[in-house]
Amino acid sequence: MTYYPPVSPYSVGMACKCPRCGQGALYDGFLKLDERCETCGLDYAKADSGDGPAVFVIFIAGFFAVALAFIARYVWYAPMWAAFAISAGSVIVLCLVLLRPLKATMIALQYVNTAAEGRLEE
Questions:
Q1: Is the pLDDT at 1 greater than 80, yes or no?
Q2: Number of Cα atoms under 13 Å in the Cβ half of residue 119
Q3: Distance between CA 33 and CA 106 in Å, rounded?
Q4: Which of 32, 27, 1 is CA-nearest to residue 12?
Q5: Is residue 103 assigned to a domain?
Q6: Residues 68 and 87: beta-carbon distance below 8 Å
Q7: Residue range(s) defining the domain that contains residue 67
């Protein structure tokens, strides 16, 4: 069995790399996971981040969008339509930028903590 030194789940998550070796790519497409790591061979079939990353992305993007809308409206004295356009554009950009690394971080944390589906004992 090959030894892989422990890597930080946050650093490999933000870099979108394999949670075991920290080298191979995690994604095949924008949000589609690769089948396995090309470096260490880790199977990504069990990796399931679910909707967890989307919740964090919505909270972060929503906070910045509201703050930006208030700044645009009450500091820059922009019209209402401009404040809406600025905040809507920022939400779209932030969601696209944050979703990929937060999903990878959630998968890395799942791997490091050997998280599995919760089940009641029978």
A1: no
A2: 5
A3: 13
A4: 27
A5: yes
A6: yes
A7: 9-112
Q: Is 2 inside a domain boundary?
A: no
Instruction: Judge residue 112's burial from the number of C-beta atoms within 10 Å of its C-beta, 0-12 exposed, 13-18 middle, 19 or more buried.
Output: middle
User: Could you give phi then psi for residue 76, rounded to 5 degrees?
Assistant: -90, -10
pLDDT, tens digit, 9 for 90 and up, residues 28-83: 999 999 999 999 999 998 888 889 999 999 999 999 999 999 999 999 999 999 99
| Rg for the chain, CA atoms, rounded | 19
Contact 95, 62 (CB under 8 A): no
Question: What is the distance between the alpha carbons of residues 74 and 35, in angstroms, rounded to a whole number?
Answer: 49
Tell me how many domains the chain contains: 1
Residue 71's identity, in one-letter code, is I
Model pTM greater than 0.85? Answer: yes
Which tokens go with 2?
A: 């090959």
Q: In whole angstroms, what is the distance from residue 30 CA to residue 10 CA?
A: 19
